[in-house]
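Structure in, sequence out. Go:
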């Protein structure tokens, strides 16, 4: 009886501690658990990544484009409020076309030359990157003013999840669903003002099919994006590699390449 009483007291103490946890504390705990599940220090020290697979684009729910895609990413020293990553999205078996994003600008590259992206498209990339949960976990966790707020738990696609709002010092917010069992992000969403037609767009990204890509780092091989409830993009990766010491020229414009007028 004495032993049973001690167990009951211990369980009551644990329940009391759980009830005492604030929304901010719970949100931070869920995020910390996600970092550990994704590889801990190995994830936080990932230097570069190469994803290869099939990318699909959609317009009004209909397939609008299909391409073999290769996405090269290199992480830089984090700078609060700024993009601290370089990314090249290459298309086709011979990578005949690509889009290059750096901390200094963004270009669409073809055989005709390099055309700077329009301000609207570049701003959308920057905003999406700053609110991408994997970018936040890898680059922004130590950023001043970053806040976490738990919306408690729920069920998403038959999966028990923890829902956390993450808000930065510039009031950018992204809502992330983390699987209670795996701790991985499975969904994120945010609202962004549409500068062309006014109002707001609801941007949703789903992540699935996580695999170990080296050293215990876990990464989703299927990424699905929606805007205002309509599917706009999906990529199925066949391979993901990390820490391959990607060369500088992958993220640089060739000196002989013609610079075209900026896109409107």
């Amino acid at each position: 009886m004495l032993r049973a009483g001690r167990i009951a007291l211990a369980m009551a103490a644990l329940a009391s501690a759980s009830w005492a946890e604030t929304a901010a504390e719970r949100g931070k705990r869920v995020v910390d658990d996600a970092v550990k599940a994704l590889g801990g220090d190995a994830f936080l020290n990932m230097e570069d990544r190469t994803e290869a697979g099939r990318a699909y684009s959609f317009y009004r729910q209909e397939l609008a484009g299909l391409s073999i895609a290769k996405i090269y990413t290199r992480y830089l020293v984090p700078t609060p409020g700024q993009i601290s990553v370089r990314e090249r999205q290459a298309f086709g078996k011979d990578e005949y076309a690509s889009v290059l994003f750096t901390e200094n600008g963004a270009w669409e590259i073809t055989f005709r030359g390099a055309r700077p992206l329009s301000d609207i498209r570049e701003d959308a990339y920057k905003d999406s990157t700053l609110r991408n949960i994997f970018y936040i976990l890898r680059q922004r966790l130590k950023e001043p003013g970053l806040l976490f707020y738990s919306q408690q738990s729920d069920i998403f696609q038959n999966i028990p999840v923890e829902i956390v709002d993450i808000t930065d010092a510039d009031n950018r917010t992204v809502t992330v669903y983390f699987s209670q069992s795996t701790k991985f992000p499975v969904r994120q969403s945010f609202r962004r003002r549409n500068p062309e037609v006014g109002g707001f767009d609801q941007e949703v990204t789903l992540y699935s099919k996580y695999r170990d890509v080296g050293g215990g780092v876990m990464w989703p091989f299927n990424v699905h994006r929606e805007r205002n409830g309509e599917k706009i993009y999906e990529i199925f990766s066949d391979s993901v590699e990390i820490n391959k010491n990607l060369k500088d020229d992958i993220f640089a414009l060739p000196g002989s390449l013609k610079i075209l007028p900026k896109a409107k």
